[in-house]
Amino acid sequence: MNKKTGLTMFLLPLFLAASVLTAGTAGAAVSVSATTKKALDKTIASADTEMKNKLTKQFGHFLNLQEQERAGDARNKTIHYKNEDTEIAVRKLMYQIDSGKIKNLEQAVKQARDRHQPLFDMYKSLNQQISVAKSLGGKELASALNAQAKALKVPVQLARQDIKAKTTLLSTAKKERSAKIKRVRNILADIKPIDVKIKAERSTESIYKKNVSTEWSYFTQSVKKNDPKATSSSLTSLIAKSNQIVEQKRKIYEHEKKISDILAKAKMQIGS
Predict the structure, then answer these.
(1) How many independent structural domains does the chain possess?
(2) Angle at CA 159, nearest 5°, toward 154 and 163?
(3) What does pTM read for this prediction?
(4) Within-domain flag for 117
């Protein structure tokens, strides 16, 4: 096996990785074309041993960073969409806090009012009849009706107290529910400033990607010119800029993790 054949065999896995990377990465900063791969192969082959090793190592490092970028994208998308789904679920659960308890108390108030309404109607009717009897001069009838009304006075008071007690329980439960919802809403409010940070990180990442795209143009020109030194310089810059992108994705992931923690805290509050 001659040196050129050996070098080609050594670089083949890197080129294959580049091909897979280009095909599988949405929004990838660069695309390694067959022409560029062939030019790089030729450039490396023309370099001295030290530069051969350096270029091979640099290009391998660059491809590794591109893979890290792809993995970072996948990881960030996964946690982001999970957070979105979780937040929707948490906000839905938030408005269901104590809903069963409130419903039961509302039913208890309604049942109490329905149960006591005939008594209230009777008491009201007796008092109306007493007024009519008095206006017509029927003292004996008024007296008899008044005795019946007095007999109902205590039951009526107890019925009103029963309804009031149940209404108070309902009112208290609603206030407690509102307080719980407010606590959860306050927890979720911590997500907004983190979203702002994520937006800023993505904006910075976009700038870095444009820088990589520009530097990649210099790289392709260098390999076309069969210039090992210029190619190495471009790879050095590409590696540095790609590191910045990977770091941005790490920062975004850390922010998403904080959102996950906030959502977990909110869920715990709902469950308490």
Answers:
(1) 2
(2) 150
(3) 0.77
(4) yes
